[in-house]
Specification:
alpha+beta, Rossmann fold, Tumour Suppressor Smad4, eleven-stranded antiparallel β-sheet, 23% helix, 36% strand
Length: 287
């Protein structure tokens, strides 16, 4: 099996320049390339030669998203290694955080076809959203030192002052009007680092989980965070989780607003139209 390995050397909190030593131990017939700038992983994936059967992505969810955008029209297998700040998609798929073990066991992983979703035509495969988590994703993307502690500091710095926004939400044939703190679109279950935003999400069920965190008393913030890390966010009284295939969300404000796609921020105007892609992605999971 011919493999292309795409490494983001600055993802997460460690330098991954020496990861090639682990690949040398366990893999044969591969080519490795290190990304050098934003969207480089997308360019590599988009221009991938047909001789490759598999792509291994060593990076975080943002790097995975770049590769998804480039690979969506190709018949190729995707394997991910948790080398980023959060690694939600890899962790959802039970990929070992010990890179030596993860790479050694690649041959034993199961191939499944994962759903891919789009927001106004922009693909995502893990978790996306708008509201407070998009604000944090945008601020986090600008940091030089990106890690779990940096993310938590941003949350604590901004959470008290943030004001919920009014949204009109259409999920298939149901309509909801609400003031929401944030709305997450979960194909997989996890933001990363054990933060489970949608405990029952499955990446191959043809359904998107829409997690609506309605306006709540800020004194309950510790309880919400506790529930997220205990895989119990669905038990928080101000949380509604719906499933659907065709979703439209329209903010009451007419101004442009932030969303994030697998943690990567993007500014959008008007409504969000969320659809399932006609193409699925072959991914490796550790059952």
């Amino acid at each position: 099996m011919k493999t292309k390995i795409i490494v983001n050397p600055i993802s997460g909190t460690q330098n991954h320049r020496n990861i090639h030593k682990i690949f040398e131990k366990y893999l044969k017939d591969y080519e490795i390339v290190y990304t050098e700038y934003q969207n480089h992983a997308f360019e590599i994936s988009k221009n991938l030669n047909k001789k490759f059967d598999r792509v291994i992505v060593a990076g975080g969810d943002g790097t995975v998203n770049e590769c998804i955008r480039g690979l969506i029209d190709k018949d190729i297998i995707l394997a991910t290694l948790p080398c980023g700040s959060g690694n939600g998609f890899s962790l959802h798929n039970n990929i070992d955080t010990n890179l030596d073990n993860a790479i050694k066991n690649l041959s034993s992983y199961k191939e499944i076809k994962s759903d891919v979703w789009t927001i106004n035509g922009n693909p995502f495969i893990n978790v996306s959203g708008l509201g407070f988590d998009a604000l944090i994703a945008n601020s986090f993307s600008k940091l030089k030192n990106r890690g779990f502690s940096s993310y938590i500091k941003l949350v604590l710095k901004n959470i008290i002052a943030y004001k919920p926004q009014e949204y009109n939400i259409e999920i298939d044939n149901e309509e909801i009007n609400t003031d929401a703190f944030f709305i997450a679109f979960a194909n997989a279950s996890e933001y990363g680092n054990g933060a489970i935003i949608s405990p029952k999400s499955k990446i191959n069920d043809g359904l998107l989980d829409i997690v609506i965190v309605n306006k709540f008393n800020k004194l309950l913030i510790p309880k919400l965070i506790f529930f997220i890390f205990k895989k119990r966010i669905h038990k928080f009284k101000k949380v509604i989780i719906k499933q659907g295939k065709m979703i439209r969300i329209t903010p009451k404000s007419k101004e442009s607003f932030l969303v994030h796609l697998d943690g990567e921020p993007k500014k959008i105007s008007g409504s969000l139209d969320i659809r399932i892609s006609k193409r699925k992605m072959k991914v490796l999971i550790n059952e």
